[in-house]
Amino acid sequence: MVGNKEKIEELFATWLAQNAPSAHLSELYFCYSEIEAYCLKIKVLRKPLFETIDLDIIKRVQKTVTESRIFQLSHKKQMRKIVTAAQYYKAFVKSLVAQETNTTELSISQTMGDTSSDGKPCEVTQRKEIALSENKKEDNVLIIDFCHINSFAYTKPVSFSYFGDEQTGISNWTQLYVKVLVCLSEDYPDEFLRMYNTNISGGRRIDFGSPKASDKMNAPKKVSDNFYVETNLSATDIVMKIRLLLDRCNVDYENLEIRYIKIESMQCTEPSLVENASKRAASATKNTMSAMVTTDTGNYKAIFRNWLLHDQYMAERSAQSYSSAITNCEQLASRLGLKEIRLYGADRVEAQRVVDQLRQTTEYWEVNASQHNRYNAAITKYLLYLQSSDRQETTACVASKNKEPEQQGTDFDRFFEDEKYDLLYKELKKKGITTLEELNEVNLWSFMNLHQLYSIQQRLAISTELTAKLRNTEKENDEQNTSVYEIHYNGGVYKGASPSKAFVAFLTAVSTRYPMKFRTLLNVYNPESQKIVVSRYDYGNTKLRLMNPEAYIDSD
After folding, report:
1. Predicted structure pTM score
2. Which residues of 25-63 are buried (b: 16+ CB within 10 A; e: fewer)?
């Protein structure tokens, strides 16, 4: 096991970038100093957090920050982020333990050989073979979308990841349900106590309870010593229950990823199916063409995902989520009966037509809101991806006719004039990022982490500094505009290149001064206009973005 803080911290930063949403990385990292300071003070930790890789101690740390009333009161605003941060570090430590176990098994396998004394494959070899066979099925594996739960008949779960902690070898839905409950009940014991002897779906049967309550269950399964669960449920019911539990525990859907496969029924008892057997042979050519289209769609999806990873520097989980969201948008377009539904494989003009039709429906915005703006963010990235190929083809022509990009490059150079930014500046130039507009689209923390630039503390400091510098640059550009608008309020002056930008400047000041009160105004309807003034989500292209918290107002 790794023995020094710097190495563990480096490993954890890499692991976190792969498993947590990239937009939350800097927020999560700030939480660890708060956790460490409090747990050292009350002797839960004997040494710094990133020097502690004992799983039992980390579990006590997690329990302390989630159950200590003193800590909760002193960190009321950040509690949800802190709890999430603690869960991620526990999952990371678990992964280290698993790596150590795998290394030990490998050395035993190499020492003992691939067979035991009786000539049969040893246990380690058998496990490796099982893992290989599971990997072969990866192409058929699907991921549950908790916002669109359909029937899960004739399906089988294969694994799940909870805050990056992956559990494999799942053989049925009941087993998965119990394992997910173990994870959730360990992290949210108080919430589960409130659900004892109740049905979370509103039915009559008890979902959870003590050993005594299990007598009233049809198929009780033990989760822990004093916790039993009713498992007489269909696969679809289990998924619905899990979604309700995530909502009750305030766990974002993206932090629980359940993978499953479809099982083809071998029985063909209906006469109509037997009669259609000959028709299937006649339509073999059509099926082959359909399979080719499906394969092409998979290729387009993989190319888009790679673009997100290597050109947009997204974390693996975020790239997977965005690429899946495009497929979900196609399915939604089909359900809505739109004339055009294809996004993967379409050119930019065709894709834009589909997007425009989707954005005209209330169903799209409702689903997008329930997905925390994931659909719209993914579509925006996808259109940018389609546009990037056209932009690459015309870059030389545009550069020769228009001198503005050269001026932008000069501004870009001046932006990095401090020597401490040299490494980042050179790496950005290598990747073709040469303007402030392009820099605005880059997650600096993920970029520096991906290319191993600076130490972790330096990455955090530089990311914070440059983000603030970019915002100030935008503000200066607005103030230099010949038609500056001003809002005068309570002795303060808030400027912008347009009335709406001046309003954003005013709202930024208000949200900084009154953060909790400001959040109560998000998604609130104006009684006179019957419109939302400050929205949590970007519902279209005519929006201006407010950064902290992230919110939007109409630019018109």
Report:
1. 0.38
2. bbebbebbebbbebbeeeebbeeebbbbbeeebbbebbe
